[in-house]
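Lecture 7 notes: from sequence to structure.
We start with the chain below.
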Amino acid sequence: MADSKEKATSKVSGFFAGVKGEFQRITWPKRSTVGRQTVVVACVSILTGALIALLDYAFESGMIFLFNL
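Predicted structure tokens for the same chain:
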């Protein structure tokens, strides 16, 4: 019984040791880079939303026009 607990504990500690090793290999971006990329993603998301809203309005107006003929 104790042997299986030791194996489980060693597997878990081995897993977390591997996770720690992988995290040390990561090349993290600088704070300024993350900030700029966040702004770009927000702007592109807003522009895409505006384009979709414009297309939705245009299609809705076109359908109203066609059904009122």
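Points to note: The longest helix spans residues 31-67. Residues 2-67 form one domain.
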